[in-house]
């Protein structure tokens, strides 16, 4: 079943409306106006509210040589697709069945329009995606060459999102709040502790995936935020850099000592997680990967789609490695999830192995 079959007539009408407005009139909304054609889609209560960055990805595959100033390079393939960690997570979570709302910012331009249309089509509530009139929508240019990849990001409107843009009524009607790409979101970053503190006080569960710090500062202020986080979702390298430990074992002990469950994703090796003194490892699902763009976000989407619905940590971790692996089967982070029938077959065959052990907490506080 393709995603479009999940849509109601009203949704299809909304799509057509957005398509028409794309062609005939540029976005004319100001930064305080709402953007969804039908702001009641989907209806609260929400399973998940994602506060995050929005950008398109321009992927140039198999560039013949590393880019260099003053020289031209040729790519074999080009894809323009929904980017941004937060949007990939939110889009895939919605496709996997979570009633999802998004808070973010785009520019008044072609890419902003496209992002809104894609997220609307995938059934998200986009009514709190605001349109900035001063800066353009973010864009990440990704080039792959000789089995590796490089990225250049123009942050644009994502940096304009601040705590003033939070719709507290929307948060109050949700079960779970997630934020991705903490380091990229300079406008809301100083207020993340307040955001999560308030969300916890309102009874939500919470999760955070910082992703990479482009300034490579990995500051300690993150520890004040982790106090209000139920599940922290870094990859293994980020976990070590944030905790300032040179091995994942110490990193997991340190981060869990701050009070959260920590799930460190380890690429093709699967995941290692820790809750209190209990350690979980889950093997990955073997795949012939096209690219790993958005694998972490797709892991998060699968994990949250179970965790938020009250399933066990074990079940949520196992489902996450299935969705993480599945995302690598197509270019970009969301393309694979356009074919839900294929996902269902993939998930039915996948058999990730979970091991649970008790760990001895060493004195790792810094
Ligand atoms: N090549 C792969 N084969 C199978 N599973 C993968 C592969 N790459 C990623 N995954 C799955 O996706 C998860 C997240 O990927 P990872 O690369 O660790 O995240 P990030 O994109 O945040 O760095 C992994 O824990 C794993 O379960
Ligand atoms: Mg990641």
Structure explained in plain terms:
- By secondary structure, the protein is of the alpha/beta class.
- The chain has a single domain (3-358), classed as UDP-N-acetylmuramoyl-L-alanine:D-glutamate ligase, CATH 3.40.1190.
- The chain is built from eleven helices and 14 strands.
- The chain has helices at residues 9-24, 85-95, 110-121, 168-172, 192-201, 222-226, 236-243, 248-257, 295-307, 313-327, 340-349; strands spanning 46-51, 55-61, 77-82, 100-107, 125-132, 138-145, 148-154, 174-180, 205-209, 231-232, 261-265, 271-275, 278-282, 354-358.
- Strands 5-4-1-8-9-10-11-12-13-14 form a ten-stranded mixed beta sheet, sandwiched between helices. A four-stranded mixed beta sheet has the order 3-2-6-7.
- Strand 12 (271-275) and strand 13 form a beta hairpin.
- The longest helix is centred in the N-terminal third of the chain and has 16 residues, at 9-24.
- The radius of gyration is 20 Å and the shape is globular.
- Adenosine-5'-diphosphate binds next to helix 9 and helix 10.
Summarize this structure briefly.
With 366 residues, the chain is an alpha/beta fold. It contains eleven helices and 14 strands. Bound molecules: adenosine-5'-diphosphate (ADP) and magnesium ion.
Question: How would you summarize the topology of this molecule?
Answer:
Blueprint lengths: L8 H16 L21 E6 L3 E7 L15 E6 L2 H11 L4 E8 L2 H12 L3 E8 L5 E8 L2 E7 L13 H5 L1 E7 L11 H10 L3 E5 L12 H5 L4 E2 L3 H8 L4 H10 L3 E5 L5 E5 L2 E5 L12 H13 L5 H15 L12 H10 L4 E5 L8
Parallel strand pairs: 1-4, 1-8, 2-6, 4-5, 8-9, 9-10, 10-11
Antiparallel strand pairs: 2-3, 6-7, 11-12, 12-13, 13-14
Helix pairs in contact: 1-3, 2-9, 7-8, 9-10
């Amino acid at each position: 079943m393709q995603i479009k079959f999940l849509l109601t007539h009203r949704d299809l009408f909304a799509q057509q409306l957005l398509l028409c407005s794309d062609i005939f009139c540029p976005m004319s909304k100001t930064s305080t106006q709402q953007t969804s054609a039908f702001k009641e889609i989907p209806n609260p209560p929400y399973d998940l509210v994602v506060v995050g960055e929005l950008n398109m990805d321009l992927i140039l595959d198999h560039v013949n040589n590393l880019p260099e100033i003053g020289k031209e390079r040729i790519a074999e393939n080009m894809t323009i697709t929904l980017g941004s960690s937060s949007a990939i997570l939110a889009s895939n979570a919605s496709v996997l069945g979570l009633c999802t709302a998004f808070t973010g910012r785009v520019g008044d331009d072609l890419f902003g329009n496209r992002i809104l249309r894609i997220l609307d089509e995938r059934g998200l509530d986009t009514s709190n995606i605001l349109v900035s009139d001063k800066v353009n929508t973010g864009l990440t240019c990704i080039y792959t060459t000789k089995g590796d990849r490089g990225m250049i990001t123009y942050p644009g409107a994502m940096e304009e999102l601040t705590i003033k843009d939070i719709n507290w009524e929307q948060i109050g009607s949700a079960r779970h709040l997630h934020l991705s790409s903490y380091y990229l979101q300079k406008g809301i970053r100083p207020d993340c502790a307040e955001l999560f503190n308030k969300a916890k006080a309102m009874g939500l569960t919470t999760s955070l995936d910082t992703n990479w710090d482009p300034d490579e500062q990995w500051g300690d202020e993150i520890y004040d935020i982790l106090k209000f986080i139920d599940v922290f979702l870094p990859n293994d390298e980020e976990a070590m850099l944030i905790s300032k430990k040179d091995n994942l074992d110490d990193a997991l002990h340190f981060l869990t000592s701050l009070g959260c469950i920590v799930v460190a994703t380890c690429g093709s090796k699967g995941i290692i997680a820790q809750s209190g003194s209990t350690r979980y490892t889950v093997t990955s699902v073997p795949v012939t990967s096209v690219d790993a763009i958005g694998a972490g976000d797709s892991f998060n989407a699968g994990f949250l789609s179970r965790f938020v619905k009250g399933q066990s940590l074990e079940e949520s971790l196992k489902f996450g490695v299935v969705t993480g692996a599945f995302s690598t089967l197509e270019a970009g982070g969301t393309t694979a999830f356009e074919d839900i029938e294929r996902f269902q077959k993939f998930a039915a065959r996948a058999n990730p192995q979970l091991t649970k052990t008790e760990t001895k907490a060493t004195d790792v506080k810094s």
